[in-house]
């Protein structure tokens, strides 16, 4: 644990994803710069398709989720996203959607590389370095709906299992409840923030309409000073239209997207708890099987069938080994899940604080702009005679 | 819920200290001062206490109050409109009917949805709706008051008998619910008027002043109408956004109370911030409503009243011209000449009287309008600045605290 932290402090790994270019599909260019010795060079750039990102997730998830790791999920394929609420006119090619996806992919990749275990994975290195990636096929399962379905299935089986499991460590049970409660609240919050984005966009449009109307009124006003003041008011409202538009973008990119990320991430957290359950179940099943084999041996001894006895003894040895192995697996996975959850919580706290402060600062700047506009207008209003 | 709400809601408007005649700059005259000192909202009617202070000999006392309802204001307004003597004046526009329907509907919905929200959320929303109801209530009081003040400030209208009866007679005026026949008559009168209006508008005026005023008012009225509806829409969106921030604050609070970790404390602080900023946002929307939307609505009605004046003058002009033609015909035939002469005299006098007072009225209208816009635009800008600075300060101090914590 200590060593990993040291490594975290020492290396540098800057990843960003820049503008996509449309070549058949969107290609994303990810310029990297790093001081990590494991990479071939210090700075490099590669191009990836959206489906490549999904392919990376699939590979990482297949390998690491069964061991209890929380593998960061990629953004959804679909436009609708989480809340199924269409906010304004959006389609695949709209500038807003493109930017949203770009930023989401960037955050996704950053989360992957800042996970100390995942960074060591050769698939991640290949993704970052390799010039040409073979097309990832069968990412259908990872389209928005598919991913959510997978998570929902996992949580369904999870809820069936929790009744049966004798939780020796109450930490896991409590933690899972916390995660589920948080998930609920975050989803609620996301819907509300989406609503805010919608209303701010509406406000922007309506302010623009009002600005034009005031300009018209000003031009028909026959008192000169009032006419000028009204046209100044129209200009202020015009600037407000712009300001509201920018604010809505900030609401969306800083706040809503943060919530969407964590709703997806919580899904991965629940998946890791589910995996732990599966390993527990496997251990239990092996114990039951061992019990059965012992009973078989006993029966054979009683029935005095020495030829089958050796088989029975071999079976017992086999299943004893499995039981030991599965118990070890369960302990190992439990330890990993625990460690992962703690790391996740630390990262989440950091992320939320950083992003929300950034969001508040954007609100702050809006107010400063607002003040400038109205301060410029006030003397014009006072000049009316 | 509806019952406890629709019941008595009393507002003593004077205590607010807010200047009430927000849309009209009026000089108060010691000889006659009128205001609405109290108002009561009861189920579906509002009772206004009209308070008068006067040194005029016409009244029995120097200070007195009566209780009036909306219909009685309308009766007074209509009596001015129907009075031929006042044809040459801009009749102060009637106050709009008190409309609590939207508010009542929201309250109904809240009552129905009580089971699906937490106690805190419910209390919060109830408080907001009550505040909204109160705001609408205050507005309707202000609008009724402005009407009376305009009448009291007008050199001729203030002497009107009906006005004095309205102010002084402390019994029911029994004018509620015009009978059906009267309503039908009104309907037809308005139809004829608008048809006539088109006719008269087409006639070019010899007098440059009135020709200019006609062109100006027609265009101005339409543009004020558009600005008024657009401002309403804008303010509506603003209120919706403030409501969203309110809900976000509540959910952040719930998140913050789930634990006592650092991140939860963070959520609580942000929730507190949003609670405060959304109150300011709601105030911004409310002030924009008062200073901008109400101003535009008022001048929509006033410009209509000014148009009506021009229409009446136009009608009088048409009557005068017809009387001239009739006189020429009579002289040509040498039949009923005296009758025609008298008729023509009457029409001429009527037309000249209206023209004279109309000119002054329209000049006064312009002065009032410019003054009202100035007052409201200055106040609007000052309020926007005050609220923006308030918001800025809250945000700055919160960001400072949050950054310090990490």
UniProtKB/TrEMBL annotation, chain A:
SUPFAM superfamilies named in the record: BAR/IMD domain-like, PX domain
Membrane topology field: Peripheral membrane protein
Record's keyword terms, sorted: Acetylation, Cell projection, Endosome, Membrane, Phosphoprotein, Protein transport, Transport
Domain PX: 1-135
Main location: other
GO cellular component: cytosol; early endosome membrane; lamellipodium
Function comment: Involved in several stages of intracellular trafficking. Interacts with membranes containing phosphatidylinositol 3-phosphate (PtdIns(3P)) or phosphatidylinositol 3,5-bisphosphate (PtdIns(3,5)P2). Acts in part as component of the retromer membrane-deforming SNX-BAR subcomplex. The SNX-BAR retromer mediates retrograde transport of cargo proteins from endosomes to the trans-Golgi network (TGN) and is involved in endosome-to-plasma membrane transport for cargo protein recycling.
UniProt family annotation: Belongs to the sorting nexin family.
PANTHER family referenced in this protein's UniProt entry, alphabetically: SORTING NEXIN (PTHR10555), SORTING NEXIN-1 (PTHR10555:SF129)
Protein name: Sorting nexin-2
Source species: Oncorhynchus tshawytscha (Chinook salmon)
Lineage: Eukaryota, Metazoa, Chordata, Craniata, Vertebrata
From TrEMBL, chain B:
GO terms, molecular function: phosphatidylinositol binding
Record carries keyword Acyltransferase: no
Tagged with keyword tRNA-binding: no
Residues annotated as domain PX: 26-173
One Gene Ontology cellular component: cytosol
Signal peptide segment: 1-17
GO BP, sorted A to Z: protein transport; retrograde transport, endosome to Golgi
Record keywords: Protein transport, Signal, Transport
Alphabetized PROSITE patterns for the sequence: PX
CDD domains from the UniProt entry: PX_SNX6
Family recorded in the similarity comment: Belongs to the sorting nexin family.
Function: Involved in several stages of intracellular trafficking.
Name of the protein: Sorting nexin
Gene: SNX6
